[in-house]
Predict the structure of NAD(P)-dependent alcohol dehydrogenase.
Amino acid sequence: MDTVVTDTFFLEKFADRTETVWTRSDASQIVEHHGAPTRAYGALYSNGPIHSMNIDRRARLPDDVAIDILYCGVCHSDIHMIRGEWGEQPFPMVPGHEFVGRVSAVGQAVTRFSPGDFAGVGCMVDSCKAGLEQYCTKGTTVTYASPDPRGPGRTYGGYAERIVVRERFVVKIPDGADLAFTPPLLCSGITTFSPMQHWRLGSGQRFAVIGLGGLGHTALKLAVHRGAKATVFTTSADKAKDAYAMGAKDVVVWQPAATDPIPLAEQMANRFNFLLSTIPLPFDVAPFLPRLRQDDIFVNVGAPGVIAGVSGGALWNQRRSIAGSCIGGMPETQEVVDYCSANAIRPQIELIRPDQIDESYLRVERKDVRYRFVIDLASDRIG
Ligand SMILES: [Zn+2]
């Protein structure tokens, strides 16, 4: 049985609608209360606007941590999910898979957290695996829109005032960390840090990131901090100045549809040790593979669909590889949060209120965000 929205909510919200999304009887079937309802922000149907709504969080188990959420990032995946661009999804949906807050209560088996501690949650809340939780072959429980093995319904994400999460999936936020800047590290930070660790991006290596958005700008900052010589491929000429300010040595403005999409083709042949693509949509990688050096690698962390333009010859020539990487495990997620706090690596954010979420989605789609929106959920509680 799902736990979601009260039917009074439906009656109020849909009193003036001509289309029927759900009837009162549909709504009453999914209503189940476990104490006080939690205020959340989500969509009632695919591609719908973000509404304020009430959800029920599941009961706390002995190894669970309850968190009052303070800041939640807006990830491009939230938009793909709401829009139905990654296939059919369950609704209502409360997105949000990068957030921090203050621990309000802990179960008796919890050892790492106490009430009052700051804590963060990323893209996963349960898994069959330990260490590389994201590669659970039974299906990782993601932070929202997943069947919840610990609760009566589905998972609902961090666009909400509170949540209950298994301790093993909660990250400690170090003392002194900038809370508002921390949420993006729990998705874009770990997604770009993990392949750099796995394939050992080192000082002096030539690194390039393709796409300078939420993931890409975090990748750039992480690579520069490791001492890599970083190049940025971006389709937005007006981001070049920012890229240089973040430490890029070169910026290439490219257009995927152009016949010669990379104007500096000759100079960049056999140049890079590590190409990291953060582009969330399918694009042609043919221009990029010949830019890799011998034995070096192209890693996709963005596009979920077909990767076009992979030439067999471009791979066997210079023994190049193409690979993918999915977020990162919980130990590594803790590591990237600690590392960024200790080294003052901060994503660049724009703070918004919950009533600006719809607008923020449109701006992400227009590539008009520098570089991650973070929702200030406490502002709503005070206001
Ligand atoms: Zn994300």
